[in-house]
Amino acid sequence: MELTKDIYGIGVNDYEIDLFEGQYPVENGMSYNSYVIIDEKIAVLDTVDEKFTEEWLNNLKQVLKDKDPDYLIVQHMEPDHSANIKNFMDCYPNTEIVSSVQAFKMMDQFFDLDENISRRIIKEGDELSLGRHVLTFIAAPMVHWPEVMFTYDQKAKVLFSADAFGKFGVVDADEDWVCEARRYYFGIVGKYGMQVQNVLKKAQALEIQMICPLHGPVLKEHLNTYLDLYHTWSFYEAEEQGTVIAYASVYGNTEKAVVELKEQLENRGEKVSLCDLTRCDIAEAVEDAFRYDKLVLATVTYNADIFPCMKSYIHHLIERNYQKRKVAFMENGSWAPVANKVMKNMLDSCKDLTYMQNEVTIRSTMKKDAKEMIDKLANELTEQ
Ligand code: FEO
Question: Are strands 353-355 and 325-332 parallel, antiparallel or unpaired?
Answer without folding.
Answer: parallel
